[in-house]
User: What shape does this take?
Amino acid sequence: MELSGAEIVIQCLKDEGVEHVFGYPGGAVLHIYDALFQQDFVKHILVRHEQAATHAADGYARSTGKPGVALVTSGPGATNAVTGIATAYMDSIPMVVLTGQVPTPFIGSDAFQEVDTVGITRPCVKHNFLIKDVRDIAETMKKAFYIATSGRPGPVVVDIPKDITDPNKKIPYDYPKKIKMRSYSPVLRGHLGQIKKAVGLMLSAERPVFYTGGGVVLGDASEELRELTRELGFPITNTLMGLGSYPASDKQFIGMLGMHGTYEANMAMHDTDVLIAIGARFDDRVTGHIAHFCPNAKIIHVDIDPSSISKNVRVDVPIVGPVKSVLQDMLTVLKEGKKRPSSAALKKWWQQIDGWRGADCLSYDRTHAQIKPQFAIETLHKVTRGDAFVASDVGQHQMFAAQFYGFDKPRRWVNSGGLGTMGFGLPAAMGIQIAHPGADVALVTGEASVQMCIQELATCKQHDLPIKILLLNNGYMGMVRQWQEFFYDGRYSHSYVDALPDFVKLAESFGHVGMKVERPEDLEGAMQEAFDLKDRLVFMDVVIDPTENVYPMIEAGKGHHEMYLPPKSELV
Amino acid sequence: MRHIISILMENEAGALSRVAGLFSARGYNIESLTVAPTEDASLSRMTLVTRGDENIIEQITKQLNKLVEVVKLLDLSEGPHVEREMMLIKVKAERSQRDEIKRLVDIFRGKIIDVTDASYLIELTGQASKLDAFVNAVEEELIVEVVRTGPSGIARGAKGLSL
Assistant: This one.
């Protein structure tokens, strides 16, 4: 088969089984867009800004486990995509981003729409390539998908100069079936000796805790995690990125940990004697002050990336390997041995945890005249029967969604954890809806975040994406306001979002349904009505109590045992 | 502590900037860095000198290994090894100074490789400390120009860092 460079790019996508590409055309990718036009396997979703192309590809990847693909032009197309690439990089999301580049003879000449894409993206990609010969396209594309999806996943950028895609230069095409790279070989199994040592340590524990993160979701290891946790009877806490990998409704689940984690999860972390970290990376929002982190614990750490191990916290039993196979091996070792953890010790530990649970750290004022954000999320859970895909932006609403939705399944909670990218939510929700056409997809957002990629309402209209947007509107950049209230004596410097649009009219002007909800008693009905509109995007502008704060909270630089709980005066 | 790390990497455009970028992005310091192709033209060999405590060096080696283009690396400081650095130094050498400088070059087993009626160009190879000693031994006002390669290193013994 003889194909041009542009046709090869598209054919490679077909051969990788890529059905959806999120993109925006421009000069340097016109040949590729022309090749895209002449086939119908790869469907293109036209976004309104390249940042959204990468976020949508990211949401697609997070909700499916398949690599997301974005296609943008050179120069501003590439720089606009960078925020989305960095977002995916921080959360280890498999993604391939194809960027156009000026023709090779012009590279380095400050040509029109030229930037050094490989240079700009280098610090925020797993790897990147600049293709300089049409004969290298197929192999490079194969490598890009292999690198993006294997080991610790991540975004890979492939920069393609326009002359490489010349429609008049055709060459024989053959997509490599397998690829082997001498400089890149991810670990496929954990070390059995270390795994046995870890199981021994778990069995000797008196106050154990599972601390599990996004790696369990990315590694599709929820089943194994559930089995191991139930087999041992240990408490389990999830990071923000790990929510859903263990069912939130299970009695062994003690909630999210970290800065806005539950009292019971953070206190259990502080008092544990054996911490079992799985696919989590000891992020500063999780650990608090390192000096106070798990002061009495032996630490087991399972991670596919050796550089995650002992990066922030020294661990006692490191295990490098894919979470799924390591957990399977742990289960095998456990089942082969007769020994089980001390039930007396565990009983005592659970009593202590139940005591902490008694603090009811997620309580809020249920009698308030205004809608409380917590109540809005609980209502969302009720209306969607806890079975929706929930995307969020960044800020207070993100934390409320994480605390109150109660995710029971992996890949249902899609948020920007590492980079904390406002504007992520709406395009990410588009990616989810494209991947799951019939499913309920909710976006929990704030009036500040949603305006960062608001133009994507047009994309939603064009591609009939019936997302349900739950805008928790408090008129402030809520999390900024909260920090200013706590740490800057209430000097609300530029956190009040003045001159808000009328979101109902705005949604309607894009061809969607808009709703405004102001009273707690109207919320459930409105939300039910919204979700009953199966084929329409509904934008719910929900006016919430502007003074509500996210509790519990650990101040940056404090330990797990130094939490703020919700003020008693607000408790019922 | 000072560490000297030997890196075998794909001889590809941009590989060097990945290493340099990694060090600046993560705040590690590079004391020196040398790189050139090996007997296998598809591979480059880099010698990198850095400083840091045990944790930092562990992170540096892990992060380097994570770079897709790095094939293999070895922290030479972990075992017996040889380090050599080359220096080219141009010094003023007028009539009265010529004998003295020539003697100094002989003591350090250097070579004079270019001569004018006012200067010598000297080539000197050895450990960094030997080159330092030579620079210190020459009167400061005589030095016109110094260029050093930074150390290259290799482990002692029969085994080699190869694929």
